[in-house]
Specification:
Distance between the termini: 79 Å
Number of helices: 8
Radius of gyration: 33 Å
Largest sheet: 7 strands, mixed
Strand content: 35-45%
Number of strands: 36
Shape: flat
């Protein structure tokens, strides 16, 4: 009687050996040479097919669950089961002010009542690498005053290519799908208009539904979800939840296809050229160029959410149940609204030194830069309103970023490497950058361990024998230019009084000299400048104070100061200090960042090697 075949093996050789063992157990192939016979080909074929089936079955099983799936289409489909829609690509945004000056000679019948900017392309610009387009998503109307001046203020413009697609409802096609065949769509820019009766040219605006709670059979809504190949598909109501579209109804969908992060960081009124379509209340197109008076720095652009982020956020989104109660809920919702987030810290007003009950503070560190623009903060706050509970007031605040720099001298054995000083220095910098991007450092409440920094530097190259490293802290104080003000800068770590505090340069009101400040190692800060012979001249011995134990620097508290300009760009005065402890730890709402670019890193040949 033959023995059973082992069914649990998935390896090719094991499957083949099991088949051979089975054939031998039948006693019909006694003394048969399986290795040299033609039966070997058949056994190989069966083993290969069995292994392929086992692999396919295993992959199908893995792809059926969110935690183990790897293909994007499967990850998205599994996330859809918990009601999660991955974040789309995000168009870079900016607020812009511009104005038209109409001439009365062009309007003998009198000035029009208003001007209307048509949705679509509005401004052209360049990011230094390529030309970009910024659009208005909705028509913008500005009133004409009695002098012919028309002001458009705080107009939101979004980067991308403005496109339209049209569909006709065909009830005979049971598998009809409304799929937008373009990648990188910013779904917040999607606008849907429906001509419900094909015989009446009346367009009805449909809004996007995110849940069924407030949707009934009369609701003019649509649903949007990601399908295959990062495309998006729209679906409409069935008569119970949302209006059911009639046969022949025409659907017009407009949206932006964006370049994501490529549109970030554009600033200055001279960077934008008006390219839009503007008509007056008489229906006449305006050909004159407007004057751009102000514009924000563009920001918020990002690429579509990746697979790892979807797998991480989908369960948290399901746990939050579309409400913002605990800090994890805010983290999930903010990343849904604005994907370009490095880290988030949420705290209640009751945690402040002077409690403010009924308020929730949300600090967001973006992927690029230290703080969000005013436009982005307003956008996030407005988007969170639908999720907050009771009467909680949401406040968007800038994160407190604590930078850590290194003063490093690396010693290396030149007999073990072909690299010179610059090559070793480059390796050290690359290693520190990777360490700075680790989950223990670049986040709110992060920490930089001195021993880790030393070990990372020593491991940068096999030829490195040792290193001398000191950590120093830096805070970027944002000066309120041309305004008398006092400043408090917190390092949240005790400061070493023997090494003190010092700043970069700045100019003061009614003075052209460049000033600096430092402490006297006893808790008092004085300001000074350098004369023509580079001698230090002390100007104000009571410029500020420093609390070494708490790590706090106070500037202009006795007499407010008026900073006119700063040597560092963007109105920044860099303040540096050295920690008492060899470790630097950021607490609560302080975001820790290892700044390798502004560190002092040098490499020299080690002349103290044993045997030399």
């Amino acid at each position: 009687m033959s023995g059973p075949i082992q069914l649990t093996e998935v390896d090719f050789d094991q499957i083949k050996n099991n088949l051979i063992s089975y054939l031998k157990s039948t006693k019909k192939f006694t003394d048969y040479d399986f290795d040299g016979s033609n039966l070997q080909v058949i056994l190989n074929l069966i083993s290969y097919q069995s292994q392929l089936n086992a692999y396919s079955t295993n992959m199908i099983a893995n792809e059926s669950f969110l935690a183990s799936s790897t293909l994007r289409n499967n990850v998205v489909a599994n996330a859809r089961m918990v009601g999660f829609v991955p974040s789309s690509a995000k168009a870079s945004r900016a607020l812009i002010n511009f104005e038209f000056q109409l001439q009365l000679v062009d309007y003998p019948q009198g000035f029009p009542l208003f001007l209307e900017i048509q949705r679509g392309l509005a401004f052209a610009t360049n990011n230094g690498k390529s030309n970009l387009s910024f659009n208005v998503i909705d028509n913008q109307i500005g009133a004409v005053n009695n002098t012919g001046l028309v002001k458009f203020e705080n107009i939101e413009i979004l980067e991308g290519i403005f496109l339209k697609e049209s569909f006709s409802v065909d009830k005979s096609d049971f598998n009809q799908r409304f799929t937008l065949k373009n990648p990188n769509i910013d779904i917040s820019s999607v606008r849907v208009e429906v001509q419900e009766d094909p015989n009446e040219e009346i367009l009805t605006v449909y809004s996007r539904a995110t849940n069924l709670v407030e949707v009934n059979g009369e609701s003019k809504v649509y649903w949007l979800e990601e399908v295959n190949d990062t495309y998006y598909e729209l679906s409409f109501g069935d008569g119970y939840f949302g209006v059911s579209l009639k046969d022949g109804a025409k659907i017009t969908i407009s949206y932006l296809v964006t370049n994501g992060q490529a549109g970030n960081g554009i600033q200055g009124v001279t960077s934008y050229v008006y390219s839009g379509t503007c008509k007056d209340s008489y229906g006449i197109e305006i050909v004159d160029q407007p004057t751009i008076t102000a514009v924000d720095i563009s920001g918020g652009g990002d690429s579509i959410e990746d697979v790892s982020s979807i797998k991480n956020r989908a369960p948290k989104f399901y746990a939050s149940q579309n409400r913002a109660v605990v800090s994890e809920d805010y983290e999930t919702l903010v990343k849904e609204i604005y994907p370009g987030v490095d880290d988030i810290y949420v705290y209640g007003g009751e945690e402040l030194d002077i409690p403010e009950y009924g308020r929730v503070y949300v600090a967001v560190k973006p992927l690029s830069g230290d703080r969000l623009s005013t436009l982005t903060k307003t956008y996030i706050k407005k988007s969170l309103q639908d999720y907050r509970i009771a009467s909680l007031d949401i406040q968007m605040v800038d994160p407190t970023v604590l930078y850590v720099e290194t003063e490093t001298t690396t010693f290396y054995d030149n007999r073990k490497t072909t690299k010179d000083n610059a090559g070793i220095t480059s390796d050290v910098k690359n290693t520190l950058v990777r360490y700075g991007e680790s989950s223990t450092v670049a986040k709110f409440g992060g920490s930089i361990r001195y021993s880790k920094v030393l070990g990372s530097i020593d491991d940068s190259d096999d030829s490195i024998t040792r290193n001398n490293t000191i950590l120093r802290m830096r805070r970027d104080m944002l000066a309120i230019e041309q305004t008398f003000a006092s400043y408090e800068v917190c390092f949240t770590n005790p400061i070493d009084p023997d090494k003190g505090v010092y700043s970069t340069g700045f100019t003061l009101f009614d003075d052209t000299k460049t000033y600096y400040f430092e402490d006297d190692k006893k808790g008092t800060i004085y300001s000074f400048h350098f004369d023509s012979l580079n001698n230090k001249i002390v100007d104000n011995k009571q410029f500020g104070t420093v609390d070494y134990e708490k790590g706090e620097v106070f500037i202009g508290y006795d007499t407010p100061i008026n900073i006119i300009s700063t040597k560092v760009s963007n109105s920044i005065v860099e303040i540096r200090a050295y920690p008492v402890s060899q470790d630097v730890i950021a607490r609560q709402s302080v975001y820790l960042s290892l700044d390798v670019a502004k560190s002092n890193i040098n490499s020299v040949v080690d002349t103290q090697l044993a045997g030399d």
